[in-house]
Amino acid sequence: MERMTNLNRRAALYATTIFALLALATAGCCCAGYQIGPQGMYNTEIKTVFVPMVEADTYREAFAERLTEAICKKVTEQTPYVLASPDVADSVLSVRLISEDQTVTAFNRYDDTRQKNVNLRALAMWRDQHTANIIAETNPIPLNEESGVTINSQSFLVAEMGQSTATAQQEAIDKLAEQIVGLMEAPWN
Predict the structure, then answer these.
(1) Where are the domains of the chain?
(2) Average pLDDT in the 125-137 region?
(3) What's the rounded Cα separation, in Å, for the pair 126 and 24?
């Protein structure tokens, strides 16, 4: 009786193994072209990126440096690309900050700012150094309103929650950097 149970278990194990192998083989045929993992999200021909200092059309000069730093940080954290100098980089990610404004959306009864919005707008372009092709499928540099990808970022400042203008600005910069680096993902086909 015990021997019969072992035979049944073995037969069930073999059947399960064969079924799993068939399912994997069928999935491989049906999903040809798809890749699993983050490697499939990025252009594998590009290995290095140069990020020049962000050009800024705004009055706050520190925004360019802060945005450049945030973009470099996001590139190293979220992509397989390595930052490199312009003479050895495979590609260039150019960014121009075209506007920055802050609007008050709510006051308290003493006319103090209760809520403020920090809005940033930038143009970004990613270009292959070797072929001079635009990877992000936009027009060549120089960046202007008609070329590049326009990206908007917004952050809310609520003073009662312990936020300051500096924290709201940094949040908007980080959001903008994340969206810019998101352009480096391979397009869906």
Answers:
(1) 1-34, 38-182
(2) 73
(3) 37
